[in-house]
Amino acid sequence: EEAVFLRKKITLLRAFSLLIGSMVGSGIFISPKGVLKNSGTVGFSLVVWFTCGLLSMFGALCYAELGTRITKSGGHYIYILETLGPLPSFLFLWAEFVAIRPANSAVVSLAFGRYLLEPFFAPCAAPVPAVKLVSLLGYYTVLTLNSWSVTWSARLQTALSIVKLLALALVIVPGMMLLAQGHTENFQDAFDRQSLVPDKLPLAFYAGMFAYSGWFQTSFVREELVRPERNIPLAVIVSVITVIVGYMLTNVSYYTVLGTQDVLASPAVAVSFVQRACKSLISVVPVLVALSCFGTMNGGILTFSRTLFVASREGQWPPLFSMIHIRRHTPLPAVMLMFPLVTAMVCIGDIYHLMNFFSFSRWLFIGLATLGLIVHRYRHPELQSPFKVPLFVPVSFTIICLFTVAMSFYSDPVNISIGCTMVLSGFPVYYLVIHRQILNFLCFPPPSDYLTHKLQLLLEVVQQEIKTY
Predict the structure, then answer these.
(1) Is residue 5 part of a domain?
(2) Is the C-alpha dihedral spanning 188, 189, 195, 198 positive or negative?
(3) Which sign, positive or negative, has the C-alpha torsion 405, 300, 112, 61?
(4) For the domain that residue 359 is a member of, what is the CATH number?
(5) d(Cα 359, Cα 356) in Å, to the nearest integer?
(6) Rounded Cα distance, 201 and 407, in Å
(7) For the chain, N or C: smaller number of CB within 10 Å?
(8) Closest CA to 60 of 251, 241, 230
(9) Residue 462 — φ and ψ, nearest 5°?
(10) Where is this protein found (predicted)?
(11) What region does 188 belong to: left with phi over 0, alpha with psi -120 to 50, or beta?
């Protein structure tokens, strides 16, 4: 009885919650170990954290301008498609589907399972099979919610964003109190250059940028945002500044209580912190951290499903995934597609290997998207964007992203080579399936609509009826 399309249900508060909820997740509770391990000392690790925050602000500002110039949803994918063309955009889509997004979701899911079970098995480590089982149950719960209602998934994101900030506060306050009492012994020789390993710094930046990742999430739901020209820049600037301040204070609190070896030896840094600083919260903080990871999973599913939705609408993905449930008004097929790959990566994956594995591809394409902003400005000088950043911001961010990607081949050649292979494997797929001339040349029969029609009937989905961009 009513038109089927994605409604504008993301207000400024929900946009802010989406960004906070996506950034403050497992990263701040996992990444301190990765940053410290690859930077060498407490002082250099804090420099890495602040630099990653500054870089995230640069990238967020670039994406805010792209979001006001390009009115479609889809994030990295649509920005690369509109500025650099169909081949690089498909390579991103392929890498995102095969490697980046499932690995990212698996990392967050495993963190959720580990922190949720930690109080029940302390002081012992939670059994790995139990962690993986709980991780999958959490992921499936969020998957079901996003299939059911955009409104409810957005409300959950808002509620969990408050929980995330509370979890940070419970770490920051005890640490700052101890620091004020003069507990500075862990900051002695904070910048010992003998411990610095320059060739490992790209991996430290990957870990830090993983903790900040999420500043681009509003670009994925651009068509569902209320007043996007105003709300995208405002939500981005406020949320990134909030997270930078919160992360710096959280890391100072960690190092006030825990020594270098304690952080490196801990499988769950936040839990080790509470065991030392405030034992009365020993059963509370892990649950808050788990809920924080739960919110990150929710934000990831909400946004990546829109990438698949838009790619299908642009003709680079099967048409079924540009369809919407006739009553729920959710992109149901796109939401459900990640189910098998995330399940596989949770079952076989290790958090730190997965982090390096997908970071290469992610930052390569983010650098290409901001390069696309420079190209778009050059090609369309007549376009008056309501939000514009100085040119040095996208130029410096792009150079740093691509330089870090290049350096990572030396730092971790095995995992980075796997990520590179995943990206390159998209070439034959593009030319055999997407590129129509080669498809016709090889005399492949056109794909049948029979299966798509049957799945439409089964899932109760149809094409979007109203143009929203």
Answers:
(1) no
(2) positive
(3) positive
(4) 1.20.1740.10
(5) 5
(6) 9
(7) N
(8) 241
(9) -140, 170
(10) Membrane
(11) beta
213-225 confidence digits (pLDDT tens): 888 888 888 888 8
Dist. CA 274–CA 284, nearest whole Å: 9
- Tell me, what's the pLDDT at 443? 42
Q: How many CB atoms lie within 10 A of CB 157?
A: 25
10 Å Cβ neighbour count for 144? 11
C-beta separation of 97 from 279 below 8 A: no
Task: Tell me if 277 is assigned to some domain.
Answer: yes
Q: Is residue 131 part of a domain?
A: yes
Percent of the chain with pLDDT over 70: 91
Q: Residue 41 corresponds to which amino acid?
A: T
Name, in order, each residue with C-beta under 8 angstroms of 430's C-beta and a sequence gap of 6 or more. Answer: 87, 90, 91, 94
Q: Which two structure tokens, joined as six digits, stand for 295? A: 């919110």
Positive or negative torsion for Cα 298, 142, 327, 161: negative
Structure tokens at 467: 């143009």
- CA of residue 300 relative to chain centroid, distance: 6
Helical (H) or strand (E) element with 324: strand 323-325
Q: Which amino acid is at 414?
A: V
Q: Note whether residue 413 is domain-resident.
A: yes
**Which pTM value belongs to this model?**
0.85
- In terms of residue numbers, what domain contains 184? 12-463
Angle at 293 between CA 285 and CA 13, to 5 degrees: 100
Residue 435 sits at the vertex; the CA angle it makes with 433 and 436, to the nearest 5 degrees, is 90
Q: Is the dihedral of CA 6, 7, 9, 11 positive or negative?
A: positive
